[in-house]
Amino acid sequence: MSAPSTFHAVVAALPVLALLNGCAATSSNALEKYRPPPAGEPAAVINVGKHGRAWSVDGAETPSFAEAIRLVPGQHRVGINCLSYEILAIDVLVTGARAPLATPVVNAKTALQFVLVTGSFEAGKTYYTRCVAVNGQPHAWLADAPDGSSLPQGFTSICTRECPR
Predict the structure, then answer these.
(1) Is-contact 58 23, C-beta < 8 A?
(2) Stretch (H or E) spanning 13
(3) What pTM value is reported for the model?
(4) CA dihedral for 137, 138, 141, 143, sign (positive or negative)
(5) CB distance 110 to 123 below 8 Å
(6) For the chain, where are the E strands, in sequence order?
(7) So what's the pLDDT on residue 38?
(8) Most buried among 40, 51, 125, 149, using CB within 10 Å?
(9) Closest CA to 55 of 99, 119, 112
(10) Given phi > 0 = left and psi -120 to 50 = alpha, else beta, which region is 91?
(11) Domains in the chain: boundaries
């Protein structure tokens, strides 16, 4: 590997290393970690799916890549989000005089909606995060059916970021 390409590899790796180290650091304002009910105890389940994320339960942070979140039956406030992205263009940036290095550059438009859903979760019932984007505007909600289009009865939702105007 030549010196310029080694330099480019190191420069490209620095942001990744910074992100990994940043995730390991404990922030003074970090949320406490969510603790689900023990296995075998009655629980409601939130099926997170592929497009939404349940990022908090009652102010405690849930695992980042969890596909399902178990809840003690009862009243809870769950933070969910929905990411919308549209790739506008992909360009190639060529650098280096002696040994050209081609780097793809992606130009994207993104939006991330956050909502807080509050309601009484029933034991043995599965709830579903829903995430749909229309014209680049994300919309997140919780449903009691995989293809549900509205909140379960008695639940409320408050949009906190990227709210429709």
Answers:
(1) no
(2) helix 3-24
(3) 0.71
(4) positive
(5) no
(6) 44-47, 52-57, 60-61, 68-71, 74-95, 101-121, 126-134, 137-143, 156-161
(7) 95
(8) 51
(9) 112
(10) beta
(11) 32-161
Helix or strand or coil: residue 59? Answer: coil
Exposure string (b/e) for 54-85, b if CB count within 10 Å is 16 or more? bbbbeeeebeeeeeebbbbbeebebbbbbbbe
**Which amino acid is residue 12, in one-letter code?**
A
Distance CA 72, CA 86 (A): 37
pLDDT tens per residue across span 97-134 = 777 788 888 888 888 899 999 999 999 999 999 998 88
Q: Encode pLDDT of 9-53 as tens digits.
A: 444 544 544 444 444 445 566 779 999 999 999 999 999 977 778
Give the whole-angstrom CA distance, residue 76 versus residue 79: 10
User: What is residue 7's predicted lDDT score, i.e. its pLDDT?
Assistant: 46
Q: Phi and psi at residue 135, in whole multiples of 5°?
A: 55, 40
Q: Strands of 101-121's sheet, edge to edge? A: 60-61, 52-57, 74-95, 101-121, 156-161
- Residues with Cβ within 8 Å of residue 124, at least 6 apart in sequence: 42, 43, 44
